[in-house]
Amino acid sequence: MSPPFADADSLRALSPRARRSVLAWCLYDFANSAFPTVIGTFVFPTYFVQAVAADETRGTSQWGVAMAVAGLLIALLSPPLGAIADGAGRRKPWLAAFTVLAVVTSAALWWVRPDPSFVPFALVVVVVASLGFELGTVFYNAMLVDVAPPRMRGRVSGWGWGIGYFGGLICLLACLVLLIEPDPPLLPLDRAAAEHVRATAVLVALWYALFCWPLFRFVPDTPRRAGIAQAVRSGLAAIARLLPELRRRPAVARFLLSRLLYTDGLNTLFNFGAIYAAGAFGMATDEIILLGIAMNVTAGFGAYAFAFIDDRIGPKRTVLISLASLAAIGVVLLLIRSKAWFWLLALPLGVFFGPAQAASRTLMSRLAPAAQASEYFGLFALSGRITAFAGPAALAWATDAFGSQRAGMATILVFLVGGGAILATVREPPPTTVPRPAVADQE
Q: What pLDDT is attached to residue 439?
């Protein structure tokens, strides 16, 4: 069995043991993608603002504050944990610990009843669960260099991404068919107490735990290389050495600054889109899940189609087209009042999510010096996390200040347009150009 989108010939070229490790590594993405899809985006946020919070506007603001807190903690913890992942070896125990944290806290959301008194409990648990998920991915991503041969890392990374997208979609379908839609329910669940919705968090926990185990069983771990304290000191020192070098690489610096902004916008749009659909257009949980399924399909189509466009027109133009399209569609979505028009516009919105992120990685590979690619991709990852709190915080502030979900969502446009404007000033090297040493200017 091969992951979706996998190249069977490439897999057959590996030894049986290496092939098993690759497939097990990819399956972890299948496992953990259920969390952002169900709990982070389409089901639990909708339940929180519609049924748990006192009202939808206040619930949107509260959810925004929680996501901002989670983003700030992730930004603070990711660099030292990344240094541990790169320098200390023995990644599986760390990944296991954060996986267990995410699984247990996901299941704990079952106890969030449709009552405002459960708001503090819900938000604390979601923040901790988000930390478990996000910090676990630091160690999961770091395992790629041990699982895949250098010539296949791009393909294996893409296979993991593809099977993760597929896993989130299947889990969302399972939530709809097994829990949300059946009335009377297939299981003894009290719909009046929203148990059919709360049970989706338990399903995510079971899904996560079931499909993650092959990684821990079949993927070998690296031996211990250094103490944790030494690894953190070395990793942070490497980042500190690299930052001054950006003064001699203004194109890289501007790109990282632009990505910092538009990634905040993309993540906030992804995390709050379902909440906006529920509050502004009165969409129920089953409609939100159907919307999520449909948007995942269009996102898959967009990621596939733009992979060819990226090679033809270049990653910078691909990102700019994606950001401009997202901003333009977003403006219209803020103005319309019709649910039918929302459906019509939300589906093409999904097309441009994947290309904006995938082409960013391609552009970084062109801008980074070949001899320091790993170090620069460390900065690339940091730029996607270090201000992860800013988008949710701005949305929460605007929602609370203006008493409007639409005002909160409008802040996303600032991040998308601002990031795109800075990116437009970056000169993109041709694909055959090898970046020059740091002593040379790169405009």
A: 41
